[in-house]
## 1
Amino acid sequence: MTDFLAFLTQIDIRLFYTFNQLRSPFLDFIMIRASDFGIFSPLIGAFILFRLYKGGKKERIFWIIGIITIVLSDAICARILKPLFARPRPYLTLDNIYVYKGAKWIITNPEIRKHFHMSFSWPSCHATNIWAATIYIWQYRLKYGLIMVPLAILVSYSRIYLGVHYPFDCLGGLAVGAIVALIFSHIAKRLYSYLKN
């Protein structure tokens, strides 16, 4: 089992270097913004408030449970899973990678790495949250979920490009987000059925 985990870790590191080293000014611009939820949050918040006001009972239940889904997915990721697995971020252990820190690009080396504070990597909370939202919405409206899939892939990839997560961190985020989304979409459907009667 230990050998298998070491084998998976080596694959993860190789994939990380491959994705992290594919650089261009255009990708720099896109990936920085894809990881910045502060850009999307006001728009998403305004849209949800609008739908809570305009939507019927079913849609209101959907959005309220959806907000709970994202809050809990983030808490599970950040408060439970990251401390439990305690996997250091790639920029803490790997050299010659690009990492976006303090609004600038840094290429890591042993001297630079000494100045970074410990931070955990598995799973990616960005990936967890965006996939939880995508799959939850998919359960309500398939076409909206399909529209969100490219965004979820972009956000997940951006975490590797920015040097803050391994590919398996993002896959872990997808898995955790999917589990949380499926549980709470089921709860939303059951709640609506109960209140409808």
## 2
Amino acid sequence: MNNRIIKFRAWDNHNKVMKIYSLKELAGEDKFGYDTEFEAIQSGFDNWIWMQFTGLKDKNGKEICEGDIVEWKPVVLDRKMRGKVIWHMESGAWFVKDDIGDCNHLGLLLYISTEVIGNIYENPELLK
């Protein structure tokens, strides 16, 4: 039996609020059963930006999702680094695109005390 938890987070761009759903909740939601694309658009569904839970947690036990902003301190630098969590299609893995444009494998960053400090929709200023 697979114990992997599949969750999604949705940023409601119209109401500016984050919503979290498990796969079971998504499958059971009546509001996802639109008959036409027009009905979905009328409901505001097209304003949602979907992000997936990576299956990983930060140093504080907080779940890490696509679009999260994480912070860590590399051993070789005198400063903390920040970046956003992305799905790297070519590698088929979760990565963090850091503030200097490099991509770092998310799994490796967890070994150096990575912490979720926000997300790109509620806290975009954290990447500036």
